[in-house]
Every structure is written in C-alpha cells, then in structure tokens.
Amino acid sequence: MTSKRAEGAADSSTARPPLMDDVFGYAIGVVFRAYARGVEAAVADLPGGPRGYFILTAAVRGEAGSQRSLADGMGIDRTVMTYLLDDLEEAGLVERKPDPADRRSRHILATPQGEELWGELSSRVEEIEQRLLAGVPETSRQVFLDVLFTLARQADVFERELVDRTAADSTGAQRPVRAARRGRGRSRA
Length: 189
Fold this sequence. Notes:
The chain is mainly α. 63% of the residues lie in helices and 8% in strands. Helix 2 crosses helix 6.
C-alpha cells in the first residue's frame, strides 16, 4: 500500500521516507510534536512556556475555574500548577481570587496585562496552527477541527476512565475483567 505521503515524497528533496504514516498513534505523535515545538518557540518568553500559555488562555476565556480543577483538566500536578501560577502572577498576567463559597479554593483570572499579552501570543499560536493545517484543503478544515475537538473530548473521557480504573486497581476495590476471568484473587475451596 502506497500512502499519500510516500507519493508526495518524491516531489520534495527535504521529505523524509514514509514511516508508519498510516498508523493512527504515529500520525498523532507527528502532529503533536510539530505543534508543541512551534508553540514552544512562539511563547518562549512567557513564564511556564506552553503550559503558561494554556493557563493564560483558560483565564482569558473565563474557563480556568479553580486552581485544582485547572490542574486536573490540564493533567498537571497540583504542586507544579502552584509554581506555574506563582510565576504568571508575579509577571502580572493572572491573579488568584478566593472563591466566596469556599475560601480554600482560588479562582484564576487574567489581568488586563495578561489579556493584552495573550492577544499577541494567540496570534503567534494561530500562525503555527495555520501552517500545520496548510496541507488540509480549505473546504475540509472546519470539518477536520470539529472531528479533532470531538476526538479530544472523547479521549479526555477515556483517559479519566483509565485513571479511575488504575486507582480502583491499586486499592483492590475492582479487578480488570481479564484478571477476574483467569480466577485471580479468588479463593478456591
């Protein structure tokens, strides 16, 4: 089977030979690595780099919520999130406000300076996104993005289920189905 990438590779002297270009996980990895490198360069001066950018994005959009929920949603250790927020707050880009309903909880809000900087940074990130999407026909881009965002939401649910299953396994509360089928953990009389 000849892939589209292999067919186009002869046209470019800088193209790499095809390597698993039709394997789902590999393809996602290639796109992710290119995106991550581009965004890292685009937001290099921001405290926390790309993670700082996404924290600032959530704050500007009013989606950051509490420090804990933001850490959980981004898959960042809470201690690391504290350091990232300390740096962003010290730079005057975000502020933490106590939740009136729960004084132990802090809401993350963008400052006017944070909103202004985010506007500049988001333009750079959008350029990276457009360069990556350049190979997708203009008429298909929105469909591709809609499918990507749906996949991301589904992947988030899948990951949470895996985390929940792993936590349950470590406490012994539940066993994976395959272990139960093999009879592990059962007493035999």
